[in-house]
Amino acid sequence: MPPRESDKRAETPSTIEMTSTLSRHQFWTVPNMISIGRILLLIPLFIFLRKGADENGNFWALVVMGGALLTDILDGLIARWFHLESDWGRVLDPIADKTWLGCLAFFLALPWRENPLAWEFLVLLLVRDLTIVVGAYIAYRETGIVMKSNFIGKFAMGLVAITLISYTIYWPSPELSPFINPRVLVLASSAMLILSGLNYLFRLRNALLSKNTPTS
Q1: Does 116 map to a domain?
Q2: What residues form DSSP beta bridges with 177?
Q3: What value does the mean pLDDT take over residues 37-65?
Q4: To 5 degrees, how large is the angle CA 172–CA 177–CA 178?
Q5: Which of 14, 64, 167, 192 is surrounded by the fewest CB atoms within 10 Å?
Q6: Is residue 185 part of a domain?
Q7: Got the DSSP string for 131-174?
Q8: Which SS3 state, helix, strand or coil, does residue 29 take?
């Protein structure tokens, strides 16, 4: 007997749209849980950094950092492969990244480290990231747009990550090169943090202006 029309499971455009809307606003998704797990990895990171050179603490700190990087890659891949992208994920993932780098920089700046990170650099990093978080909130509230990091922002954070790794492993002295050492990396990262922060403010200004510009 042919199936009745009511038994057919064809999805209508309205059903697809409703499902897409629900998935975009879900919080408890696998990618989001991975992002939260990345933040929790800060606990063993602090423990190992506190040990320092004792008991291979710095080495295991690098292992934890590698695990955090792996989760950063996985959450994006899973979200795209299984269509689990959400507005929460677009916000949570960069917040997890900024929380990680900010806390790592704070740990490395503590005075009991053999070669502590400069507090001026830590303050610059935190102020820049706080500015971006506040700006992202304003942009979403006023325009409904989730502002993503562009090439300048990603390059800046990549350089910051390299700088923090150099302080994690106690870069040997004399340095490998007069142009490549932790102090030079701090200066280069500071310049990129300022540039990326100004670039973000410029993009935020354009987004807000475009919202307020009347259409003809």
Answers
A1: yes
A2: 180
A3: 91
A4: 105
A5: 14
A6: yes
A7: HHHHHHHHHHHHH---PPP-HHHHHHHHHHHHHHHHHHTT--SS
A8: coil
Q: Range of 92's domain?
A: 25-211
Q: Taking a C-beta distance cutoff of 8 angstroms, is the pair 89, 30 a contact?
A: no
User: Which are the contacts of 211, defined by CB distance < 8 A and separation ≥ 6?
Assistant: 142, 143
Query: What is the distance of C-alpha 53 from the center of its chain?
Result: 28
Residues ≥6 apart with Cβ < 8 Å to 114: 52, 53, 170
State the pLDDT confidence band at 144, using cuts at 50, 70 and 90. Answer: confident
- The 10 Å Cβ neighbour count of residue 173 is 9
- How many domains does the structure of the chain reveal? 1
Q: Which residue has the higher pLDDT, 105 or 75?
A: 105
